[in-house]
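We were asked to recover a plausible sequence for a given structure. The inputs and outputs are reproduced exactly as logged, with field labels preserved.

PROBLEM: sequence recovery
POSITIONS: 225
GIVEN STRUCTURE:
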């Protein structure tokens, strides 16, 4: 049995290649829908930096090489972050406040709703999370060309300080995305769970398109927006 019941806990996976805009767009949706945003990559980076972490050097190596960190590490980090958010009534993982007042009712009695960004990136993560943590509601897939993503990542790399925002790591991340992560998207597509948005348009337009898609999907699933 999964730790969290999908009738209480809404999980939306946000997928897309590196630089597709997952983090940027998630941040823009949080307040409107009362989501807590959990980025698998951010959780891994903070675990890597945590003093005393037994996984620090392993995570650093995987990230630099653009490889997928063993699923049990990432699933445990996500599950812990979800538990903390649910127990605190929707406080964000990084201590950045709670969900807005108007959404507080969606975060009582063990209920909550999450945007899980950059996860699952590999089939074993998808299956493991579904079985052990929570069944997801749907997948928001942000589509962008490699050219667009490369330009965005090189731009971001000027200031991000990320060890993997350099051209060599970016090429490896693209390969991992095509070979390992796209099969996950296709797996959910067969289940009719994928909502796809063109993420090459200007940021504000993409946000508008996502907003509309999320509203329509909630309506279709009979869930309050
Ligand atoms: O999503 P983000 O670009 O922040 O991910 C950075 C790196 O973290 C990935 O390239 C990968 O090495 C690792 N990661 C992972 N499994 C995930 C998400 C991220 O191994 N589900
Ligand atoms: Mg990100």
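RECOVERED SEQUENCE:
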């Amino acid at each position: 049995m999964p730790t969290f019941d999908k009738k209480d806990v809404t999980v939306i996976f946000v997928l897309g290649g590196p630089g597709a805009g997952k983090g940027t767009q998630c941040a823009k949706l949080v307040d409107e829908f009362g989501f807590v945003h959990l980025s698998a990559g951010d959780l891994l980076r903070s675990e890597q930096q945590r003093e005393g972490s037994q996984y620090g050097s392993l995570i650093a190596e995987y990230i630099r090489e653009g490889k997928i960190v063993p699923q049990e590490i990432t699933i445990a980090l996500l599950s812990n972050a979800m538990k903390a958010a649910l127990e605190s009534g929707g406080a964000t993982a990084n201590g950045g406040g709670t969900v807005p007042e108007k959404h507080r009712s969606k975060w009582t009695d063990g209920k909550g709703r999450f945007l899980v960004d950059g996860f699952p990136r590999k089939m074993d993560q998808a299956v493991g999370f579904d079985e052990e943590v929570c069944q997801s509601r749907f997948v928001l897939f942000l589509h962008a060309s490699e050219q667009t993503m490369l330009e965005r990542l090189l731009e971001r790399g000027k200031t991000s300080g990320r060890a993997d925002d350099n051209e060599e790591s970016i090429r490896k991340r693209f390969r991992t995305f095509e070979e390992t992560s796209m099969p996950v998207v296709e797996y959910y597509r067969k289940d009719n769970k994928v909502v796809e948005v063109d993420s090459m348009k200007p940021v504000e337009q993409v946000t508008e398109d996502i907003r509309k898609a999320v509203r329509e999907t909630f309506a279709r699933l009979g869930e309050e927006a």
